[in-house]
Amino acid sequence: MSTYNDYIKEIEERKVQGLHPKPIDGADLLSEIITQIKDLNNANRVDSLNFFIYNTVPGTTPAAGVKAKFLKEIILGESVVAEITPEFALELLSHMKGGPSIEVLLDLALGNDVAIAKGAANVLKTQVYLYDADTDRLAASYKGGNEIAKDILESYAKAEFFTKLPDVQEKIDVVTYVAGEGDISTDLLSPGNQAHSRSDRELHGKCMISPQAQEEIKALQAQYPDKSVMLIAEKGTMGVGSSRMSGVNNVALWTGKQVSPYIPFVNIAPIVAGTNGISPIFLTTVDVTGGIGLDLKNWVKKVDANGEVLRNESGDPILEEVYSVATGTVLTINTKTKKLYKGDQELIDISKAFTPQKMEFIKAGGSYAIVFGKKLQTFASKTLGIDTTPVFAPSKEVSIEGQGLTAVEKIFNKNAVGTTPGKVLHAGSDVRVEVNIVGSQDTTGLMTSQELESMAATVISPIVDGAYQSGCHTASVWDNKSKANIPRLMKFMNDFGLITARDPKGVYHAMTDVIHKVLNDITVDEWAIIIGGDSHTRMSKGVAFGADSGTVALALATGEASMPIPESVKVTFKGNMKNYMDFRDVVHATQSQMLQQFGGENVFQGRIIEVHIGTLTADQAFTFTDWTAEMKAKASICISEDATLIESLEIAKSRIQIMIDKGMDNAKQVLKGLINKADKRIAEIKSGEKPALTPDANAKYYAEVVIDLDVIAEPMIADPDVNNADVSKRYTHDTIRPLSFYGGVKKVDLGFVGSCMVHKGDMKILAQMLKNVEAQYGKVEFKAPLVVAPPTYNIVDELKAEGDWEVLQKYSGFEFDDNAPKGVARTGYENILYLERPGCNLCMGNQEKAAKGDTVMATSTRLFQGRVVEDAEGKKGESLLSSTPVVVLSTILGRTPTIEEYTAAVKGINLTQFAPSHKLLVNN
Fold first, then answer.
1. What SS3 class is residue 773?
2. Is 688 left (phi over 0), alpha (psi -120 to 50) or beta?
3. pLDDT tens digits for 32-47?
4. Contact, 396 vs 427, CB < 8 A?
5. What is the pTM of this model?
6. Between the CA of residue 283 and those of 113, 199, 238, 394, what are the distances in Å?
7. What separation in angstroms does the CA of 131 have from each of 109, 138, 451, 455, 459?
8. Using the 8-state DSSP alphabet, how is residue 914 labeled?
9. Gap between the Cα atoms of 205 and 211, Å rounded
10. pLDDT tens profile 77-105
């Protein structure tokens, strides 16, 4: 019985880390445990019972199948376990959330023993995770005259699985815990460098914030046992950055409540808040867990007697406190009045947190149950031949006579499901939409697979046009953690129906391409809706939403997503780009000019940025749409000219074909189908039947921003401003500074060219700059390390074909070798050029990092504390974000260049240029 002994050994090892036994998901181990339970004299019987009852993962895991089968034996009397009566066995099945447990319950409910059938039916009436195979059985039995099946269907038609749940508590007492001042990044709640442990919830929970913070939270819980701890971002937004279910999981683990006594380390109902509210992606994840997210507005801009905003020496608005939420403050959330109170004092209206839909999520313990419940009620009503009884809150439908549609409103109307026929919907409408493309990334993929198992899904929805599982976040180092996690992830997702970066059968070459680049390539229709397990799911075709692992799982399983149609902000351009500037500078200037135009208010936050780029292909335009995550936008849409869109689709087709040629397509020929869709779309545009997507001329926007290219006179750098006296202003992405700010003297310790923000053009710029430097100085000498990670293998192949890769090889001191990938993260860097494997590399910060305390100049997306570089004793690490030419020149000089040095270095180089479209990109 070595499997059990191995498990006991692992338990002892976990004890040293202060951990409980790891939840069981394997069939072999649970089968051995059941054997020991049946043996009344077995020395391990008591422990085995506890493992079986309290420590087995539910859903569609192999262990769940074994558990359900044994419980069935007990209910039928085929096995007798004194500690597990048939009644208790049914209770355990009721907590197993679908898959094999539903199959067993249907076997029992539709069987010949009436008493058992009624007991099983009563449990089934509480379940919502039924799929076609399950509902088909019910429908067939009902049509065959089975009274139990009829009884179950009648219960489903009344949605008793929801209506019989306890009502949401009217008053929820909370005690505050300020997690930090300023924006709270998901990196604080679930650090990227601990990504390998995300699927082990208890272990991963130990990395939330800090051990000290965890002790402080426990102390509050001990002091206020009848109150929930509310985690707060003081003077900031909660949950900015990556779309991490693991972040919400950690908050729930420490401050939420256990979903079931029989499901280990799965907690729900966290309560989080921020002075500036909750990041949209993070709030969606909170909804998934039936939690509450509050916009506190406890600090406001101070004004003078004339109502003018008062500003400090730096020009920033002076804030004043409206009410205190200091750690240890006791507050009351009233879900009926939808107000926040301190004692009897009303503090603020919080009705946005308690819409009818959100109240349903809270009551049901999460949004999944509502999505599946609605589908189940619809199925039952249709099978019984009756009208659907109104139970759930009706979707809000906003339709404004005579008002045109923004681009996102057009896309949502096209993809909407279950809306009033013929009704045109505007922003603010609650819509269920079909999803075309889905992406899962490798450091959250295991959680996505767990979510799929927990909702009993076994195959991708036929509605989805294409789905991809990446390997980019673990591309840098093929270490033991990756070897343990990634192959089983790839097998699961491949079996589920996704195109996978690594072939579980080992036939095609591993492709560690950055997920966002792949999703951008496989999106072949600008009317598409894309859901991806990363906040940089920001395609420049269609509208893409970064999402948590659960929302990704839901999109894969159902082919749908639900959300309100967001408001839009229109961005257009005027003037001309200077020939020594790069498009990355335009992207940063957009953020800077927007903040200037609106007095420091970020009008992009939580909205769609509809950017009228027009003339840039999807590859180049992605630099803009990608950065909209840092702008705190919910998503973005790129409006293109017809010819530009056709060129982008042709590029996409060629890259999809390469994937096919590598052997990556599956039995359903998903990739081939995408090429066919691209061909169809190109034909529609060329014929004039359906031109490229544009908004209506009379569409309504929350705001319109015009970016003046003429005033962008030097490179623009996003600065973490690590020494700002106002802690809330650090690490925000909102501090955009011109190159001259640094006076050509700021030391740069390391440069990084890579991440989803760069494209092939950036690699060609790098090659040309190195040639120029050698021509000017007779040699290329780096005074700081330069790490280069091309985003995709396709780009490497194209650079090889065009001669640029040979140039990079000439100047490099290290080149990746797929036949001998690094097994250990690099801990130090020499002053050379490193050609790293395609993937995320330093941008992710989960495998390799710069040395502590370094000043890094990078093309990447994130400048959060500890992400790319951690602090050292006495010196803060900082990651400044800029264009490729600035990064390259900084490493050659070992410092920031002057504007004169910069303009000389880029002379004659084809930078990524942009000229605004001369066409009015609207539908009149």
1. helix
2. left
3. 999 999 999 999 999 9
4. no
5. 0.87
6. 47, 21, 9, 21
7. 17, 11, 15, 10, 10
8. -
9. 10
10. 999 999 999 999 999 999 998 889 999 99
- The first and second tokens of residue 585, run together, are 């500078």
Helix axes 132-143, 147-157, angle to 10 degrees: 120
| CA–CA dist 50, 603 (Å, integer) | 53
Q: What's the rounded Cα separation, in Å, for the pair 235 and 274?
A: 7
What is the pLDDT confidence band of residue 579, given thresholds at 50, 70 and 90? very high
Check if the beta carbon of residue 865 is closer than 8 Å to that of residue 730: yes
880 neighbors 855 (Cβ within 8 angstroms): yes
Handedness of CA 698, 699, 705, 710 (dihedral sign): negative
As beta bridge partners, residue 704 has 570
Amino acid, single-letter form, for residue 290: G
pLDDT at 812: 94
Least confident of 158-172, 237-251, 890-904: 237-251
Element (H, E) at 417: strand 416-417
Question: Three-state DSSP class for 102?
Answer: helix
In angstroms, the CA 752 to CA 772 distance is 19
- Which CA distances in Å does 139 have to 100, 151, 154, 696? 19, 12, 12, 46
What would the 3-class secondary structure string for 474-536 be?
Answer: CCCCCCHHHHHHHHHHHHHHHHHCCEECCCCCCCCCCCCCCHHHHHHHHCCCCCCEEEECCCC
Confidence of residue 727 (pLDDT cuts 50, 70, 90): confident
- pLDDT tier for residue 395 given thresholds of 50, 70 and 90: confident
Q: How far apart are CA 498 and CA 924, in angstroms?
A: 40
| Residue 172, beta-bridge partner list | 333
| Residue showing tokens 């010949």 | 112
Return phi, psi of residue 292, to 5°.
Answer: -130, 135
Q: What is the tens place of the pLDDT at every residue in 174-224?
A: 999 999 999 998 889 998 778 788 889 999 999 999 999 999 999 999 999
- Structure letter (DSSP) for residue 81: B
DSSP 422: T
Per-residue pLDDT, 777? 83
